[in-house]
Every structure is written in structure tokens, then in C-alpha cells.
Fold Polysaccharide pyruvyl transferase family protein.
Amino acid sequence: MTLTQSENYGTVLQAYATHKVLSECAPDIDFELVPTDVGAVRRRRLMSIANPRNPSFGVSRVRNFAAMRRYIKPLLPQIDSRWINIEDRESATDFLEKRYDGYITGSDEVWNLAHIGIDSIYYLPNRLPGPKASFATSANRLDISTLKPADRDVLKSSLEDYSYITVRDATTRTLVDELIARPVVEIIDPTLQYRPLGSVDHARKESKAVSRRPRILVMVKNRGIGSQIAERLGGRADIYSCFTRQDNTRFIRLTPQEFVDAFGDFDCVVTDFFHGTCMSIRSGARFVSFDTESTYGRYESKIKNILGKMDCLDRYFDLTTISPERLNAMLNRIEQLAFAPDPLGSEVIEANLERERGHATAITKEMVETLRSRL
């Protein structure tokens, strides 16, 4: 039970990686991705893609969306409908109960109660009879202090019925600990766990000759910051953008497979996306990540959490309160990475990634065996 339908690289990649990791861990068990979605959100998403007034409207966005659907479709089960509308909680629960013997809440932010509220089926219903587990699940942006006592009881009742819980970040670990006071293990996102995620035949598109201009990739939601990066460095570097088109940049359209491999082709990557950060880590790219959402001024963000695990918080900038000094410090760091040798080097990050992969592999095996013993 994870997200599979969003117009987002991270969504389809984490779903793909989750299925691959679990299937390779226990080849004798049939794992399926359940194609869940929220009807109202699905309609808004499609209207947004087709809206010519949307800044990101265009053929490229439509092609991106189609590429993501093609990428994940082979892993989705053949069922009567293309997707399960979880707004209808009873029908969705009936579908799960009739089709499956056990249940795993997948990775990504399925525990944040976005769009569906306290009736979210991603907190698996108690009436489902089989064993339950969570795999690198996140409750990012869910502030437990805002929950009503009755809502806390709903979440608590669901979590108490899980046989094994793993989470993706410290914020979610704190949430679970506060609700049910049970030991919870953190593991990294499946897009970092699964090694052969990208294209097998990928080759560097361009040699990094000293004589050419540096190439900087900007994957940024915040258009104001994207513009400042282009203004500051565009005269001396070639600035590219992906997923969200930025002014005064060369926009590149990538399939999910190309997205995984692309980051290592640039001299520096700048991103405020979690999975943009993950792709930077796994590719060995020089990169800078930042947060601007005010929520992350109150608790640790998912980006800061993964960079802490990789021991590279020097790549992270907290812009939840933007000041000229903080922004200038980040721009200086981007300039340093793009125009000069990286003082940290990718070896440290790679070693930490391998350590976290080993930890995740051991925990995943234990989780699967726990479920198997209770089927």
C-alpha cells in the first residue's frame, strides 16, 4: 500500500523500488503494488496538467506524466479498475481483504493524512485479518500536536495491530513512539536501497572537460530561488532545470529511468526535493539541498534527516526563514561545488550509503520473515 499514481518522479520510483526490494528479499512470496488514489485529487491533478494557465503547462509536462504511467504500469496488478479510490474506504478495504493474505504500508509520505484525513487507509484498518508491516513509511508534515484525542486513538489502534514497523525518518519514528511506545527502526528510502534502479546501459552523455563551462542542474519548486541561481551563475555556467521549469534555464525532459541516472552528468545539482536529494546521493553528484517550507522550521525535514545519515549536512541549507545571508551562503556553496573540486568528495557519502543499505537489507529480511511466520 503506497503511492503509485502521482505525477512525481519520486512517487513512481519509490513504488518500483519497494516492489523490487521486497520481491528479491522473498521470491517465494507474491508482492503486489495496490494502485490506490484519491478521486478528488486525481481529478485536480488531471485538470492541472490540462490547464494552459498553469506555469508548468505544456507538452513536456504531459509527456512526463505519460512516461511515469508507462514506467509503473507493468508492476501494477490486473484488476477490474485501473486504480482503487480510497475515498470509498469500505470498498477499498473489501478489495484488500479479499485479495491479500498480508499487508505492507509502503514508503513515501502515506502516513501524513494528506487529502483523505483520519480515514486514510494507509493506516491499515484493524478489520484486515492478515499480518501488517510498514516499509520505510513516512508521516512527513503530520504534526501530532494538532490531532484531536479521538483521531489519535484511531491512529493508535491501527499501529498497535502492526506486526513490524519501519519508518523513513526520525519525525515518523517520534510519531509512532508517542502513539504506541514501541521500538521503531529507521531505514533509508527504497530508491536508495535498490541499486539497479536506473538504466542498465546508461553512459555519460558528455565528458567533463576542463575547458567547458560548468553545468548546473536545478530541480527546485521555489521559482524565486531558481531565478536567483540563474541570475547569479548563468553568466559563467550552463543552467538546466528538470521537473519544474525555471526561467533562464534549459529545461530537460526525463523519463523516470533517465531521471535516476541524470544527476551524475552535472557539475552541481541544486534541489529542494527529497528524491532529487536521493538521486544526487546515489549518483555521487556534487549537490546542495535546501528547505523553504515553514513546517521544517519546527521539526527536522526528510531532506535534513537523510543528509544527516550520510554525514553531509554541509550540503544542507535551512531557508525556512529566508534571509540575504542564508541565501548568499547557499549560492556561495553552489559556486564552490560547481567551479572547484569538492572538498568532501563522494567517497564519504558512498561509504555511508553502503552502510545504510546493509542496515536496511537486514531489517527488511527480518520484517518479511516476521510477516511470513504469521501468514
The first helix runs from residue 9 to 25. The chain has two domains: 9-195+354-373, 215-340. The CA atoms of residues 36 and 84 lie 5 Å apart. Residues 202-209 have pLDDT under 50 and may be disordered.
